[in-house]
Amino acid sequence: MYLILLVILATLAGCSATTGTDSSDANAKVVKVVDGDTLDVEFNGKKERIRLLLVDTPETVHPSKPVEPFGPEASAFAKKTLTDQPVRVELDVSERDKYGRLLAYIWIGDKMFNEMLLEQGLARVAYVYPPNVKYVDQFREIQKKAQQAELGIWSIENYATDKGFNDSAVSTPASKSQNKNPKQPSTSPSKDSSKKPTIKGNINRKGEKIYHVPGGASYESTKAEEMFYTEAEAEKAGYRKAKR
């Protein structure tokens, strides 16, 4: 009887993991969206940075890379969908990456956000490292549909690859022809993807949010946690300008 009960409980747990959750099952709240595949949540009584498992969106805030096509769209979609929302954090076998970030699947209502990015053509299946491969097969099926529909990142020939995003494909004649009227996912308009944000946002040891502009005394030595296009954008996000 005891063994039968264990089997029933395991089955119920498996169903819960694959069918999502309603708001009453939420175990975290999103406090900040960093970019399309990275967010901060209140989880288990503390703030945690989460990197979404098995998906990769184009860069928008990387300190040494330019803003990549469809990166702003992915970020805008994440902010619109997740900001201040109750969510359920689902972990896989290995819980953290080498940077200390939690690796997770994020459920909002009965939808998994990792899947939503793939459906919109705003992410590719990536970083498939066992044992964290629970949903990889269904993710690849979703990606295949977005590819066939030429959504988002798949509207530019040879842009999204198994190794990452090929920025050089954006300027090739073939990609220009294919991307003349790309099929856009349902996100709000965003900034010009060809421009690179230069203003660095940093949170110091006291928890103060300070932004640094090019030419500032500490600009080169500052590690950016966020990048901004304008000072107004940084101030809107709660940052103040460095005094020097």
Q: Would you kindly provide a written description of the structure presented here, covering whatever features stand out?
A:
- GO terms for molecular function: endonuclease activity; hydrolase activity; nucleic acid binding.
- It holds the Pfam family SNase.
- Residues 24-156 form the TNase-like domain.
- With 244 residues, the chain is α+β, with helices and mostly antiparallel strands.
- The chain has 2 domains: 25-168, OB fold (Dihydrolipoamide Acetyltransferase, E2P) (Beta Barrel), CATH 2.40.50.90; 199-241, no CATH class.
- It is 26% helix and 26% strand.
- The chain contains 6 helices and 14 strands.
- The chain has a 5-stranded mixed barrel. Strands 13-11-12-14 form a 4-stranded mixed sheet.
- Strand 9 (160-161) and strand 10 (164-165) form a beta hairpin.
- Helix 3 packs parallel to helix 4 (136-149).
- It is globular and about 50 Å long.
- The N and C termini lie far apart (71 Å).
Strands of the widest sheet, in order across it, are: 1-2-3-6-5
In helices, the fraction of residues equals 25-40%
- Report the uncertain regions: 2-21, 172-178, 186-190
Output the structural class.
alpha+beta
* Tally of alpha and pi helices: 6
What is the average per-residue confidence, as pLDDT, rounded to a whole number?
A: 84
Write the layout of secondary structure elements.
Elements: H1 2-19, E1 28-35, E2 38-43, E3 46-52, E4 55-56, H2 71-82, E5 86-96, E6 102-108, E7 111-112, H3 113-119, E8 124-125, H4 136-149, E9 160-161, E10 164-165, H5 173-178, E11 199-203, E12 209-212, E13 226-228, H6 231-236, E14 240-241
Parallel strand pairs: 3-6, 12-14
Antiparallel strand pairs: 1-2, 1-5, 2-3, 4-8, 5-6, 6-7, 9-10, 11-12, 11-13
Helix pairs in contact: 3-4
